[in-house]
Design brief:
The protein contains 19 helices and no strands.
Length: 481
Amino acid sequence: MSDIKLPICQDDEAPKPSRLLGARHLQFFLMSFTLVIFFGMRTALSVGIIAMIEENPPSPDIPTYPEWTGTDTILSSFFWGYLVTQIVAGQLSEYFGAKWFLVGTMLLGSVFNVLIPVLASCWGSGGVILCRVVQGLAQGFLYPCILNIVSKWTPLFERSRVSSFVYGGASVGIVTSMPLTGAIAGSTWGWPVACYLYGGLGVLWTAIFAVFAADSPATHRCVSTEERLYIESSTCVNKNCTKKIPTPWKSIFLSLPMWAIFVASCGASWGSFTLLTEIPSYMDNIMDFNISENSQLSALPYVALLLAGLIGAPIADKLITNEIFTIDTTRKVFTSLGCFVPAVALISLGFIDSTQKDVATGLLVMAVGSSAFTQCGYLVNPIDLSPNHAGTITGIVNCFSTIFSILGPLSVEFLGDDKKDPTLWWNVFRLAAGIYIACGLFYMFFGSGKTQEWNEDPEEQQAKKRISEKEQKTEVYVIDS
């Protein structure tokens, strides 16, 4: 029995790294910048579609398609593929490692981004939809694989900061993509150049990622022993890279804390992706901004999202490390802020007209920016519940919540055809606010920050049980003596 090695999860016993920056920080940067590139790629079409259907482009050499209808369908088609690969991605990353799946899918998504102008000219809107579906299939690997790697590289008391930094890459991608795409689409270069730019960046970044990324400290060539011990002593994650822990499917699906993450994710997906895809349209049709102003102002809420995430993360970690709040309470507080504040802002938007452009912009900034607090809430919560199965949990959650990412933007089309009608937008915002509130309340009641029993290998659980029973028998024998 003495040769059985059990995971060490006592953070106060963890050795401290001697260097301020280590191998783990490079991995966090790689994960974050991956989201910068590929969220930028994902978002670019939300602005580019406006230029694609223009009747009078900046140059007669730029191809446009004013006859296209159903642009909301084109934008939502990304998620048709996105939901398919989520659970598969989580499983594959846990059993075989996440790195090379990320490399392959990033390369695939980049190539199809380059193909958007080509297939648009050949097959019309159907060609664009095909490219977006394939990109969705590829990017379905992003979050499960990234969270799998992050769970293996992140010490317990750094989780909120690391999560915010990594997920903040998505905000940076959106912030840079919207004005950049708007500037390119509004120039004589035209919208196709934005597709080529992001596709080329994606290919280049994939090569860099392939060289420097690693699945875990155990597989990294240059991580110091000191840093590796510091990380592994507090992650409660499987250190045996050759032995794979079986996925406890029944326990996962019967876990109320997992369902709390799922419901919170559904609400946030509906609200955030409705705003992500429709803010440019709202700014164009209701606020009457031109495409250059539109793209810049549409990006402003995501600047707030980035800043709020960077401010909230160290606060969340301090609340936990100083034992002001438990992990459980901290996750619930930040998830509540990320759901209820956007709901209030969206309801308020329904009372704003085109003469109050500054107020409308401020409320959009508030709605999107405050949602960053979920990065310290339910988004990092899978690592709390089960570091060993965080990728699979994220895959399950993202798979089904992606349905809400599809339905959110499509609700605009369902609620009305006239995007210049303020009543349409009032109904869109009110519906999103109601979903935010309902899902936030569910998480408050049923969320948890405790590591679940099914996180561990069943064999290790049995070994712990046998050791505990042996110790109890020894104590009884000593007392009897």
